[in-house]
Design brief:
Length: 223
Amino acid sequence: MIMNRKLPIGVLVSGSGSNLQSIIDHIERGLLGAEIKVVISNVPDAYALERARKHHLPTLVIRHEDFETREAFDAEIVRVFKSADVELVVMAGFMRIITPVLLDAYPYRVMNIHPALLPSFRGMNAQRQAVDYGVRFSGCTVHFVDQGVDSGPIIIQAVVPVLDEDTEETLSARILKEEHRIYPQAIQFFVEGRISVNNRRVRIRDGKCDEFLTVHNPALSGF
Ligand code: GAR
């Protein structure tokens, strides 16, 4: 296990940055052996930038509108990350589809978090999709990014119940609490060199699981 080395990471954001905040907090509490080298936002007034600045982290706005192609936009991100010696790219509420330009520069080194139990409810508004569909459980997924949309190898998932009275907002809040736990954990697995990927299946060396864990929603009454 690599104990003292801090993994240099680059974070991509577009919005509120609560996942970024959780990563920062876990680093500051000594639970996550990473160092944020730069936070890049494609949205100039993303609140995530303010969070980063409060912690004296380098930030940069790269507006996707300023580039003619997705590839050119990604090439600029790669240039910045490489010049900051970033080794792992962390997409934290980054609302752009990335291209092979970024993926080839960081093979199996781009992570994303998605607010659903993939492969259900890919794409935008995953929490609304879950409420509208009427599923009894939803959750969140940390995965490596591949060339598809929300389709890469899954590292960790967390499950939350969907309640009858849930709205998109209440479900999002329940899911977000779990996002803030599983994302730092997934990054820490990577830091510790415990993740391997084989035929899109991720293995976590010495990862613990309760194999008898079953959950029901609504609860069963005597069955
Ligand atoms: C999070 O719920 C994240 O899972 C989602 O955006 C939110 C960002 O919140 N990402 C996606 O939907 C990506 N397809 P945050 O800015 O507060 O971390």
